[in-house]
């Protein structure tokens, strides 16, 4: 009976991993297809990587996505970390429940609704839509994810460590920088990576918040896929997968070395 359960568990796990990663493997293989038709194999070739890097529109979209993701993730990390401290460390205050609901609402709010709400806000404030509005939009929902990650670490953090540092003469800011921040740094880094990945991947909210000259890579890929999948898109997607994989592995190794 136990052996049957083990076999069933392995089968389900294998099927789950195949469902998640087999399309990615096929995408990577398709990026090395020598032919233009992605559904017809014409031999191995790396020509589409060169074609993709010579495509000025795709390259410009990559730079826009990276700029937006870096800025939005950094802003979301700062705001989300502050929100986590308010939710976990400050004593109860009037309106705390409303603050918690408002801060964490982007976690469950559909992206279409959030994007439309932000669009109406930008129009109301008479803000020209562009890279800046996309950064603000991505930071809005990214901060909620950062707050959840950092809050989970702060919940297990002993405030007595900060109190001991201040008893020894440290100011509250120095105690935070020398005691609290090093302890919660892995959670802050994890929150930043999560916000960065969500921003890099977002299509719906960016479509509402973007303007001329602020076309992100997901928006560019979506507009081209409607006309047919090109091996250039496979090549660009493979390079982005490789970059994100390297970043995640590097962050994991750095966190492990710190521990």
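-> sequence recovered:
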């Amino acid at each position: 009976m136990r052996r049957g359960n083990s076999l069933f568990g392995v089968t389900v796990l294998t099927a789950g991993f195949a469902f998640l990663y087999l399309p990615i493997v096929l995408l990577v293989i398709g990026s090395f297809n020598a032919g233009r038709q992605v559904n017809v194999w014409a031999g191995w070739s790396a020509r589409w990587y060169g074609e993709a890097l010579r495509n000025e529109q795709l390259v410009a979209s990559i730079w826009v996505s990276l700029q937006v993701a870096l800025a939005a993730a950094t802003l979301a990390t700062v705001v989300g970390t502050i929100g986590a401290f308010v939710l976990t460390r400050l004593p109860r205050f009037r309106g705390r429940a409303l603050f918690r609901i408002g801060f964490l609402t982007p976690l469950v709010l559909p992206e279409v609704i959030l994007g439309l709400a932000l669009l109406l806000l930008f129009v109301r404030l008479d803000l020209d839509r562009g890279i800046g509005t996309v950064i603000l939009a991505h930071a809005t929902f990214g901060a909620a994810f950062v707050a959840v990650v950092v809050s989970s670490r702060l919940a297990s953090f002993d405030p007595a460590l900060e109190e001991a540092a201040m008893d020894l003469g440290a100011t509250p800011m120095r105690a935070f920088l020398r005691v609290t921040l090093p302890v919660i740094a892995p959670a802050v880094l994890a929150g930043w990576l999560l916000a960065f990945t969500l921003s890099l991947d977002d299509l719906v909210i960016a479509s509402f918040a973007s303007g001329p000259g602020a076309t992100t890579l997901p928006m560019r890929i979506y507009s081209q896929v409607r006309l047919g999948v090109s091996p250039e898109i496979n090549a660009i997607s493979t390079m982005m997968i490789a970059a994100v994989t390297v970043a995640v592995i590097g962050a994991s190794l750095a966190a492990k070395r710190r521990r």
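The chain has a mean pLDDT of 82.
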